[in-house]
Amino acid sequence: MEVSMTVNGSPRTDSVEPRLLLVHYLRDVAGLTGTNIGCDTSSCGACTVLVDGESVKSCTMLAAQADGAEVTTIEGLADGDRMHPMQEAFREHHGLQCGYCTPGMVLAAVSLLKEVPDPTEAQVREGLEGNLCRCTGYHNIVQAVLAAAKAPAGAGAGS
Amino acid sequence: MTTTEVPTAGGSPEPVPTSAAGNPIGFGRMLRKEDARFLRGQGHYVDDVNLPGMLHGAVLRSSYAHARINAIDTSAAEAHPRVKAVITGKTLESLNLAWMPTLSGDVQSVLATDKVRFQGQEVAFVVADDEYAARDALELIEVDYEPLPAVVDARRALDPDAALVRDEVEGRTDNKIYDWEAGDAAACDEVFAKADVVVTEDMLYPRVHPAPMETCGAVAHMDKVTGKLTIWTTTQAPHAHRTLYAIVAGLPEHKIQVISPDIGGGFGNKVGIYPGYVCAIVGSIVTGAPVKWVEDRSENLMSTSFARDYHMKGSIAATRDGRILGLQVDVLADHGAFNGVAQPTKFPAGFFHIFTGSYDYPAAHCKVTAVYTNKAPGGVAYACSFRITEAVYLVERMVDCLAFELKMDPAELRMKNLLRPEQFPYTTPTGWEYDSGNYPRALEESMRIAGYEELRAEQAARRADPAGKPLMGIGISFFTEGVGAGPRKHMDILGLGMADGCELRLHPTGKAQLRLSVQTQGQGHETTFAQIVSHVLGIPPEDIEVLHGDTDNTPFGLGTYGSRSTPVSGAAAAVAAQRVRDKARVIAATALECSPDDLEWEHGRWRVKGDPEQGKTIQEIAFAAHGSLELPEGVEGHLDASVVYDPPNLTYPFGAYICVVDVDPDTGEVKVRRFVAVDDCGPRINPMVVEGQVHGGLADGLGMALMEVIAFDEDGNNLGGSFMDYLLPTSMECPSWELGQTVTPSPHHPIGTKGVGESATVGSPAAVVNAVLDALQIRAADMPFTPAAVWRALQGRPLRTDLAIE
Q1: Interface mutation target, options A135, A140, A142, chain B, most CBs of B under 10 Å
Q2: Domain of A109?
Q3: B116–chain A nearest CA distance, Å
Q4: Same domain assignment for residues A48 and A95
Q5: B788 and B710 share a domain?
Q6: Whole-model pTM?
Q7: Packing angle of the helix pair B787-794, B759-776 (nearest 10 deg)
Q8: What is the pLDDT of residues B506-561, one digit of tens each?
Q9: Suppose A133 and one of A101, B46, B313, B734 were both cysteines; which one would form an S-S bond, judging by CB atoms 3.0 to 4.6 Å apart?
Q10: Are residues B474 and B511 in the same domain?
Q11: Which CATH number goes with the domain that contains B139?
Q12: Which of A28, A43, A138 sits opposite B734 (nearest CB)?
């Protein structure tokens, strides 16, 4: 079947199997390998992307379900050479180690700040509950998101 | 000779200059070089490798824990239009690859031939055009199984009527792998007979799994024209893997290139060689195309290296006033269906016999019996420092059990028995030589940060209130780690000594490349190893490129696990830099027309003593070394060094942890309110990176204490086979970690550093468990403290957490 969507600002149309998961579409068809796969059961959030601005676990959604949608992956978050304030905050606060959960975590955090622009620590923790990280113990991720919320230039405005 | 540069104890490092890019020229907080690519989605993990014409593999796995294979029919799968090859144990038998050696002198089935021995075991491998087709074809393979009784409970593995897991081994009549002991049993008997108090307790360190976010996988490409095998794979030890592939597959080692690209976490899960890797290689040989195999999460949890599974009975002897006299322990170790533990050859129980811990007493003895069961192989993984996790858990639980019996404050009991600073270097009753430590200072610091007295006062007030809920618990753990394996005369893996190579090359313009044998899985080597060289040579860290993870382009070494990168390869890098500095001195002296003895080092420059204006920077010297300057006889041009570092001893980081929990007695829910961690890992190369690693390890410990377990039902079905069943801590369970530090350098490491990666995973579980039990005011019950386990413990009927059997 044919699916059309806008991925990181570029429209594209592809012929895919109806059963193709969005994450495989992004990785294998669109060639955007920044989105990682961690669990296959929508438990870990490594594959989180933004679909029409909302965070979605792309291993739990068919490519066909994203037909007509605007999809943002980690590759589409920075403004050219300038990283998104959330990416900057993760770097500044050491919110990543192996980097595998990072794309999903960053996008989940961007989505969180869109919903709750000035969150408390408890709200950040609750908002990121669906994204697992095995390296950081979440401490610095939470610090990064809190800092991004305070950053200028609308860090919480999404991409 | 260069002098050893050991920062003074006390924790206040000397200020270091800052580079033009704003980085410390040496030790200090520095943002990581790695982050830019990870944050932009440009990390390059194994699953991101895509080669022209690449095929995809998938593994058919056993649904039974123990069953004879009568027949395998692959015809329908082979007829699938997008399938290129179906490989079974029979195919592998013809290549002599159906079995492969483990890291512990046993063999392991690659694809089952005679029977399956655990649920999830590899039975067949399909190679197809894409992953979807490969998995479709798995459904078309018919396996005729004859189920057999499974050995599930390790405590019954040696029963006379237990099924035989390894009946293919001629002459084998039971499931015992080995008996092993350490320490002095007679000395223990003597002190135990005279002791005022002896406390004995059973405890289980359950089977858990490292579960890195990235599962295991490989892309294998056998180029038939050149005869070269290239394998991109999730390995913490690329060089060891290369040698093992040469041994296992009979391929010439110089024609094997192992590339370990970005690794999405390892924690010991990516040390061994798994059947899927071998199948990918065979798939590439059979089809002539590159073959990618990446396991899914269930495959990862059910078949790759688990951790722990130690059933321990400890006994501690003491005087009435709390002076510890001796500790003994019997261990029943569940190794699963194959003895595939990854540890130095001479240490069948890993470093478990470091179980005497951080205390001063004369007598200790342990006996370890390892058994086969119908479960996945493994055992040494999950940041365990070769079973020091189990050892620390044992001693820290036993000390708390003693405190419980003596009705003594556990902090006071520990303080009374901790080794004193003047006792170092200290040889333990089981033969470990602790290099350095100031233990009371670390415990005092953790108590200061926690406000220990106030916490106890709050707890007493709460307990005095009969309606006081939730229940408050305070748990302490003091650990001594032993990392940086290890001296090659004592430590090898499959005969490969655990020394690490390292090459440092300065380019003519004074920039440098450092080639390492160790492999980062998130530790930040590209940053911290540049800082090590920067510390010694005064070159800005941004001018030093760290290369690793490609066996064709790095020197040999045993890899990253057991917190060994900084203690071993970090030392190699420091020594390489020192050698470059020494050579630079000779070249500078030649250029300045003086004697090397007339020069003194200032950070990044050799200068003339008494005339500091006269000197050469390391960058100037690098250019001169590559130029036309006539060098003294015996001094070669260029400026580089190659080192193989053989550590004289392990390093012994340590720490004091305090956990505060609130437990709801009605629901059994445990909330970690606070966690204070004081770590001493010697000088910190990059405090930000150290703290990040400690945070991660603390989350591991909380997870194991409260959530994580791979349990089995009576048929041997794995009950932890997905992230919906194997529960990992999220941001909700973890508190904001409160860290502190003391600094006690290692006297034998060139820059005094000790390693830290696994400290928190080793040290924290006991603190959480001690806190929960303190809240419940009971002496013992086993991890993980799920609400059900807590509730049952409160009813006086603790759960057996490893079995779904009443």
Answers
A1: A135
A2: 85-150
A3: 25
A4: no
A5: yes
A6: 0.97
A7: 40
A8: 999 999 999 999 999 999 999 999 999 999 999 999 999 999 999 999 999 999 99
A9: A101
A10: no
A11: 3.90.1170.50
A12: A138
Cα–Cα distance measured from residue B746 to residue B436, given in angstroms and rounded to the nearest whole number: 6
Is A79 near chain B, with CB under 8 Å? no
The question of ipTM being above 0.90 is answered as: yes
* Domain stops at, among B268, B294, B320: B294
Low-confidence ranges of chain B (pLDDT < 50): 1-12
Q: How far apart are CA B422 and CA B741, in angstroms?
A: 20
Determine the residue among B23, B31, B39 to mutate to test chain A binding: the one whose Cβ has the most chain A Cβ atoms within 10 Å.
Answer: B39
Last residue of a domain, one of B598, B615, B645: B645
Residue B657 and residue B630 share a domain: no
| Per-residue confidence (pLDDT) for residue B805, from 0 to 100 | 62
Give residues with Cβ within 8 angstroms of A37, minimum separation 6: A23, A27, A46, A47, A59, B47
A25 touches chain B (CB under 8 A): no
Single-letter residue type at B178: Y
**For residue A156, what pLDDT is reported?**
43
Say yes or no for a CB contact (<8 Å) between B35 and A91.
yes
CA distance B136 to B456: 60
Q: How many distinct structural domains can be found in chain A?
A: 2
Single out the residue in A47, A76, A105 at which a domain terminates: A76
- How far is Cα of residue A86 from the mean position of the Cα atoms in its chain? 11
pLDDT given for residue B465 in this prediction: 92
What number is the average pLDDT over the span A4-30? 98
Reported as a single tens digit per residue, the pLDDT across B12-34 is: 456 799 999 999 999 999 999 99
When pLDDT is averaged across residues A56-74 and rounded to a whole number, the result is 98
Separation CA B301–CA B205 (nearest Å): 17
In chain A, how long is the greatest CA-to-CA distance? 45
For B254, the domain range is 46-148+216-294
- Cβ-defined contact of B734 to A98 (cutoff 8 Å): no
Check whether residue A62 and residue A90 sit in a common domain.
no
Are B128 and B71 members of one domain? yes
Whether residues A15 and A69 fall in one domain: yes
